Request: fold
Amino acid sequence: MQKETFESIVQIRAVRQNKLLSVIVPVYNEANGISAFHERLEAALAKAPVNRTELIYINDGSKDSSLELLKTIADVNPSVQVIDFSRNFGKEAAMTAGINKSHGDAAVIIDSDLQDPPELIPEMVRQWQNGYDIINMRRRSRLGETILKKKTAQMFYTFMRFLGPVKMPENVGDFRLLSRRAIEALKQMPERNRFMKGMFAWIGFPVKEILYQRDPRFADKTKWNYWGLFNLAVEGITSYTIAPLRISTYLGLAVSLATFSYGIFILVCTILYGDPVKGFPTLIIAILFLGGLQLLAIGLVGEYLGRIFMETKNRPLYIVKNHYQRISAPLAIPEEKSKRNVQ
Ligand code: UDP
Ligand code: MG
Reply:
């Protein structure tokens, strides 16, 4: 049995060498660090056990000179392409564009702010060659992040795990490797509300986790503020599970039962002891509490209704303004793939 497993691993390894690796990099206002990032990425990719690489930078509507820098990189490097969005569509849309454009037998998604060390890519590729479909990079610690952000992130993951239909790994960001069949599975998920962490967990497949030290940002500050993160958390929960709706049903049921018992109690008391004008505190607490609860439940239904509204509009996830690639250079892509490459 063990020998068989060993042989199949050797077989998969042999098949998965000589392959094309795509690297997907979302970029939003990273002019200060993008050149340093590209240098480190190139050096790391040279050590990866694959034959060819394809670098897809997605310029997510940067307002600085990121696009110019990316174009200069693509000008001299035929394996680099730049997808330029018509405006800022957000990181999830940028990652989706990269996934849709990639031709690789495997693809790595990596941030361009050097928080995810590119030097880990060769190890990720090796794990993929060992037969795993998804290599999740798990942060050992979150350097350069406030205690409040760490705590709220932890609370979010605990809550998601409590609610969710599939277990979402904790402290795993978007830095990961996906095999071709995992990419194809993702491409079958056309939803507009894209909470990628949930989607990566949902598709299944053999997953391997690698622990790593997440570095602080190389330049500038994160683009996320707390309000943005809170909204992302609400979006994450409501696009991932309908458990909050069920919870509000149960809560409504529990409150109705409690109110019913309390009603009988009041009724019996009134019959036995008459009706002294008392109980303003009880009354006002009950009214406010129930009012709040009702608003919360309506808000929740509204959240889901809003999601349905967005889904039914069926808009594209992003608009590409330009696609830069040095096509004149001989691309070492097999016949069938190069045909697909033509837009
Ligand atoms: N990013 C993007 N679009 C956005 C925001 C961010 O493409 O609207 C990119 C950004 O350039 C970086 C990555 O997504 O490569 C992660 O962004 P950031 O470092 O701000 O997020 P954090 O690391 O704090 O999660
Ligand atoms: Mg970052």
